[in-house]
Amino acid sequence: MNITIIGTGYVGLVTGTCLADLGNHVFCLDVDQAKIDMLKRGEIPIYEPGLAELVQNNIAAERLIFSTDVAAAAAHGDVQFIAVGTPPDEDGSADLKYVLEAARNIARHMNGFKVVVDKSTVPVGTSDKVAAVIREELTARGLDPNGFAVVSNPEFLKEGAAVDDFMRPDRIVLGVGEDEAGQQALAIMRKLYAPFNRNHERMRVMDLRSAEFTKYAANAMLATRISFMNELANLADRVGADIELVRQGIGSDPRIGYSFLYAGTGYGGSCFPKDVQALTHTAQEFGQRLRVLEAVEAVNDDQKLVLVQKIFQRFGRDLSGLRFALWGLSFKPNTDDMREAPSRVLIDALLRAGAHVVAHDPVAVSEAKRALQLDFADAPHLLKHLSFATNPLHALEDADALVIVTEWKAYKSPQLDRLKALMKRPVIFDGRNLYEPWNMQDAGVEYVGIGRRA
Ligand code: UDX
User: Domain UDP-glucose/GDP-mannose dehydrogenase C-terminal, which positions (predicted)?
Assistant: First the structure.
């Protein structure tokens, strides 16, 4: 099938590449010429395991092309995926200007029936706005204003596991209209996704608004689990319970399940913070408050500071003269994404309290430098107190404490003897509960986890 993908961000690039790998002819469009040039060379602008090879293989097989040519993109795909960004507006609502611009460009250049798929995470009702824009342009061109159908097909892939998630989806949500064009579009989408549907029925076909809502509901539910567990972990600290044992105790109930119950330093990334805010905003627009979700966000903002509170409790609020090793910068492992990363809040607080920080991350250092430059625009001189180590052990030299923010695999089995020899004093603030408190105690390491009982 001929497919066009508009926007070569995370979702667009993964979708396009994986669909090409299944044998489709995929045309990826982006406005950013430098990015397109890079992709044409088979280099990818993000760190995502397995993706670069897949891009290179499919370019070589002539199934995947990258271009900035808007007219050619609209002509190419029978299915046009809109996978552009929906950044939050100042008030937290999703800004649809890129989505609607993409829709307009399709309509200006399209040359036959098109299935226009919203892949971007968009507020409930966006499909109507997309359809209205296309209809307006088609009417202006004197063409059949109904020669297209809008489909909502939200993406659930996780960064760091994006290729696998796309290739082995739990479910494929398809929102379609009930009219003839909608049903025609559904038949085309079923054909496109047939390779994923061999052994199990993965399709969840529904109306457009429910599909749009499903994406927000999923992320809001997951974010809620995390904030809830983070609050319980903080209470466990006070009452002397161990959140890890509690997690296992409740996770064994199949109604609850084990996943997404890990307490930590708060959720970050490009989806949860933005989608929680956007859904809260949608509710307000419709005259309802989502009180649970408002609390989820507030709890998460506080949780990003939980390690700072524990550090202040241990060392006092003035950290001048102290040196902290920090392991993990990206918002989670296997990505270099620094969007809403808890490490940024932590570094901000530590440097402003006078500390020196030596950070390590396997892949996110250059992204981190870029992000921190923005965070410290008001106090750039403080960045002199931040340095980066190329090896996690080097970060520990003369450190007064180690702070763990991201659970990269490389941090899971530290050489405690070397750690103790390198550090000024062996103190660990573990924001991801990577170690067992009693093991640390036996090794003579002072250990502070999140909701862990020593
Ligand atoms: C998420 C959704 O999982 C995905 O379905 C959607 O398409 C996009 O948003 P992603 O942001 O890539 O994916 O990361 P995810 O693995 O879900 O983690 C999100 C955040 O929650 C991370 O900061 C992670 O550290 C945190 N988290 C996750 C916890 O704090 N505890 C948990 O138990 C799980």
Answer: 325-437
Catalytic residue among 96, 271, 311, 423: 271
Q: Quick one: average pLDDT of 126-145? A: 97
Residues written for the chain = 454
Instruction: Find the mean pLDDT for residues 292-303.
Output: 98
- Residue 197: predicted pLDDT: 85
Strands 64-67 and 25-29: parallel
pLDDT (0 to 100) of residue 155: 95
| Domains of the chain and CATH, by start | 2-206 (3.40.50.720), 216-301 (1.10.1040.10), 304-448 (3.40.50.720)
271 lines ligand 1 (CB under 6 A): yes
Cβ atoms 416, 278 nearer than 8 A = no
Q: What is the mean pLDDT of the chain?
A: 96
- Nearest atom in ligand 1 to the alpha carbon of residue 160 is 12
Q: Kindly report the pTM of this predicted structure.
A: 0.94
How many CA atoms within 13 Å lie on the side-chain side of 176?
A: 22
Helices marked H in 240-360: 243-251, 272-285, 291-303, 306-315, 342-352
Q: State the Cα–Cα distance between residues 125 and 172, nearest whole angstrom.
A: 20
How far from 367 is each of 13, 46, 198, CA to CA, in Å? Answer: 19, 10, 39
Q: Whose CA is nearest to atom 10 of ligand 1?
A: 158
The answer, yes or no, to whether residue 200 has pLDDT greater than 90, is no
Instruction: Give the residue whose CA is nearest to atom 15 of ligand 1.
Output: 158
Q: Which residue from 431, 406, 391 is spatially nearest to 160, judged by alpha carbons?
A: 406
Q: List strands edge to edge, sheet with 323-327.
A: 386-388, 356-360, 323-327, 401-404, 427-430, 446-448
Ligand 1 contacts CB of residue 268 (under 6 A)? yes
Phi, psi of 423 (to 5 degrees): -80, 155
